[in-house]
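Researcher: Let's try something more involved. This one mixes different molecule types, so please make sure each is placed in the same coordinate frame as the others.
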Amino acid sequence: MGHYIGLDLGGTNIKGGLLDEAGTTVAQRSIPTESHGGPGHVMDRLNTLARQLADDATLEWDRVDGIGVGTPGPLGDGDVVLSAPNLPGWKNVPLGAGMTERTKRPVAIVNDADAAAFGEFWTGAGAGESIQHMILLTLGTGIGGGVIINGKLFSGAHRAGAELGHVIVEPQGRPCGCGQVGCIERYASASAVANEAKRRLGAGEASSLTSIDEVSCRAVFEAAEAGDAMALSVVEEACDKLGTTCVNLVRIFDPQMIVFGGGMAHAGDALLSRVRATFDRRTWHVREERVTLTLATLFNDAGFIGAAGMARAELGA
Ligand SMILES: [Zn+2]
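Model: All components are placed in one shared frame. Result:
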């Protein structure tokens, strides 16, 4: 049976797991990235973690069939990481070559949002033969996204994948870190929800949320559930824009399932029911509804699981 290691490279920690052919996690652990050490040191850390995982699973190193690394930032030709804002010194880093040299095993490099989508598809919310077309939206600091078509990750003509967080929903809207304005992640990410509540508190709106410093996405959702009018309005705006975005995604991709992950998805039905309400209002009803909107099941583990799954898909027999 094949064995694949998946590594999820984050700015603070590297999460990793060793999975078998069937997608069962045999070993998992996480270590600090130590990103201050620069790209070479971080690649050493990735290699160290991979070898620890094989030890944990008492698997001989040369029986590891492939290693997948999910990395932030855009990828260029030859598995070069063009830039990664949360990793100091990462500009045009040859991650694929660096990891192959260190590990002496076959390596697959994948965008981290794509890896998470593939993880949810392989063993999470979309697991099972029946789902072959799925979209993941990760609602965190920004919005990450990945698209699975016919059981395969859609990576686009230029490996830019699906930058679903930068779908423009308000052409005259809020400035986005990407340089554009009005991107969905400025309205419906966990950070956007917290920031909008803070802005409205700062503008003097009445609310049960009194301390601006303590306003988190979770606090806004809790206040909304408790009947706070300002919090409810922030939550409803975010869910409305997200529901509209889902309709647009369905128009383009015709998926069977849209999955919500990331911190904001922990709001559960408070999120899902509102997104569904907008979706139902704006979608066509000429045929019976065939798209399931649902919550992620793997959350923080989706990245390493998907990276292992991508290694299996790209490198496996
Ligand atoms: Zn943007």
